[in-house]
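Researcher: Please predict.
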Amino acid sequence: MIATVTGDHESRSLAVTLKALASALIVGAAFGALTSLVNALATDNADLESRAATTSGWSPMEILTVLLDSGWAWAGLAVGTGWLVTRRRASLVHAAVAGAVALLAATAAYAIADTLPVDVPYP
């Protein structure tokens, strides 16, 4: 009877761990891909060499790019993912690992999305 209870607890713990890691991968990859997409859209829509770009202010896409590229946004991704994981009855170790996994997934997704061809004319 004791072995069955321990086995159930271990399988539940493994399920929580796998859900936490899957959630971290999904959230991180979405954040990285979104950041790369916003960067591409802002670069595509802005003519940074013109006088109007320096005197008329920034577009909303440029502001969003600066916000998503900042260090606090990426740190917030790790902290937020860890917080989401702890809500599923996971330990703080699970939360820390999920935050690191989210950052790794975000970095990988960002790099992959940046290598995709963008239809920007070359001078």
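Model: The radius of gyration is 20 Å.
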